[in-house]
Design brief:
The chain is an alpha/beta fold. The protein has two domains: 2-126 and 285-327, 3-Layer(aba) Sandwich (Rossmann fold); 134-284, Response regulator (Rossmann fold). Helix content is 44%, strand content 15%. It is built from eleven helices and twelve strands. It has a six-stranded parallel beta sheet with strand order 2-1-3-4-5-11, sandwiched between helices. It has a four-stranded parallel beta sheet with strand order 7-6-8-9, with helices on one face. Strands 10-12 form a two-stranded antiparallel ribbon. Strand 1 (33-39), helix 2 and strand 2 form a beta-alpha-beta unit. The longest helix is centred in the first third of the chain and has 21 residues, at 2-22. The radius of gyration is 21 Å and the shape is elongated. The protein starts with a helix and ends in a 7-residue tail after the last strand. The structure holds beta-D-glucopyranose. Beta-D-glucopyranose is lined by residues 41-42, 44-45, 117-118, 165, 169, 171, 209, 239, 263-264, 284.
Length: 339
């Protein structure tokens, strides 16, 4: 009861701050400018950016969509965008911790900020967060591998290797932490064996989510630990891009393919699932997230109350950012033809 009351008070306060942030009571989207700053590091960002721009334009907004390959490039883009004073700025952060200074200026100019997919850390200048349930994604990956290997049953032990995303992206930590919460007990019990011994985030992370870095690492792992016919039964891969290079490397060596996770439902991953190469992917439907985010943008611009379903999970080190978290779903051989 008390908890519900606190949530209601928080939501009322958020509504009030949304009004203050937007500083505008004009409910017409025409001539309102929305800026979007996204990474161009994986195909899913391209898809999200384009889907969002299209929907916003249909709603009558003017859209400034910019992609960046590095954090420095993105910070410079965002600095310039803020000076143009858009009615709302949506950021898919390359480095979640790099915005502390630059967003102070957004506050001065009353530019509302929505963090898209990845949280922005250590600043109170971020107003809302639109994402998927990133903890659930990690957990689903771990649980799928647990079930597919029948770790609760007899059999095994099975060899497994772990990959994670970029240390600069909070999502990468959440995915890995929640997958490992499921899988780690099986390493302890000896049911899962990681021949490389690399099971902590820093050892298995992929700098910049760059699949070339993952390629270098899988080559090293295979050369060093799987060079005498040892099977690799399973791989935890944090997204489809990285799963693709791991599978290609194993195919090039004529190894039996492992049970392997993915994320994003990239078209290439869907083809690999159909071909029986990739085990599954977690879909973060771009339509779902962009539609939610567009509604959030409209509310921010119009000074109304955005749809929020989480007010407690995303403490960014400075504030708890009110969020809308969409529900991801799994695509594997059983439902791939429906997607
Ligand atoms: C996103 C993933 C994406 C990865 C690499 C993460 O923050 O949640 O969907 O694959 O970044 O771009």
């Amino acid at each position: 009861m008390i908890k519900r009351f606190i949530i209601m008070v928080m939501i009322a306060a958020m509504t009030a701050s949304a009004l203050l942030i937007s500083g505008c009571d004009d409910s017409d989207s025409n001539n309102k400018k929305v800026a979007i700053a996204f990474p161009n590091t994986t195909p899913s960002w391209q898809r999200n950016g384009e889907a969002m721009m299209k929907t916003l334009q249909e709603e009558g907004f003017t859209v400034d969509l910019q992609f960046a390959g590095t954090s420095d490039e993105q910070i410079n883009q965002v600095k310039e965008i803020i000076e143009t004073q858009p009615n709302c700025l949506v950021i898919g952060a390359i480095d979640g911790a790099a915005f502390v200074d630059v967003l102070e200026r957004a506050k001065e100019l009353n530019v509302p900020i929505i963090a898209f997919d990845r949280i922005i850390l250590n600043t109170d200048a971020v107003n809302y967060y639109a994402s998927f349930d990133n903890e659930a994604i990690g957990e689903a990956m771990g649980e799928y591998l647990e079930a597919a290997l029948n770790l609760k049953g007899e059999g095994g032990p099975y060899n497994i290797e772990f990959f994670a995303g970029a240390p600069s992206d909070n999502n990468a930590h959440l995915f890995f932490k929640n997958s490992m919460a499921v899988l780690e007990p099986y390493i302890k019990s000896g049911k899962l064996i990681c021949l490389s011994g690399q099971t902590d985030f820093n050892s298995v992370a992929t700098a910049d989510w760059n699949s070339d870095n993952a390629k270098t690492r899988i080559k090293n792992l295979l050369d060093t630990y799987y060079n005498a016919g040892q099977p690799l039964h399973a791989v935890l891969s944090p997204n489809d891009d990285i799963a693709g290079v791991i599978l290609a490397e194993m195919q090039a060596r004529n190894m039996s393919l492992p049970l392997i996770s993915g994320l994003d439902a990239d078209p290439a991953a869907i083809e690999r699932i159909k071909a029986g190469q990739q085990t599954f992917t977690v879909s973060k439907s771009p339509e779902l997230l962009t539609n939610k985010c567009v509604r959030m943008i409209k509310a921010v611009v119009e000074g109304t109350d955005p749809d929020i379903n989480d007010v407690s999970t995303y403490n960014n080190g400075k504030i708890t950012v009110p969020a809308y978290l969409c529900t991801p779903y799994i695509i594997d051989k059983d439902n791939v033809n429906n997607n």
